[in-house]
Amino acid sequence: MANILLALLLLLFIDISTSDGEDIKECATGQPPRPTIPPEYCQDVNTNESCDRLNFAIECRNPLLYPIVLARCPKTCGLCDRPGALGRCPDSHPICPQLRLFGNACQDSRIAQMCMESCNITTCLTGDKINRTTTASASLCQDRRTNCLSYAPYCNHPRYSSVLRDVCPRTCRVC
What we know:
The protein is built from six helices and no strands. It is mostly helical. The chain folds into two domains: 123 residues, no CATH class; 34 residues, no CATH class. The chain is flat and about 45 Å long. InterPro entries: ShKT_dom. Keywords: Disulfide bond, Signal. It comes from Dracunculus medinensis (Guinea worm).
């Protein structure tokens, strides 16, 4: 319990900034930026160069192929910022790897939600809830339409953004 409290105190006093000292800016929607897989880790699982043969406009944006390209070709399809890229749920704070040193820090629901990769949580892949002895849980953000990827360029358009953010929250990065 003391370890969890210490970890939470550390989080309260940490300056949230990028590794180069630049402050993280909020999105135009007022939402904080979504976590991304660092570029050095975002690679395709390139089996026989299959990702190189993908047509971005067709295969990468096909809702039926989305789970496959997310897991195998996130770099080619520009999906490195999506939960589930390369079969991982990303951490949303740079201190997460250090929190593992506290042993049971991942038992705290706030830390588990923020440090999914470091806590080995994969709920962003399945949409399941985290089952822990505490009340930790995380849900998957879902689009309500299968064609949301085709409307992604309009997520910030003044005329369409309110509807698209409601119907396509995952694609429009609302959650």
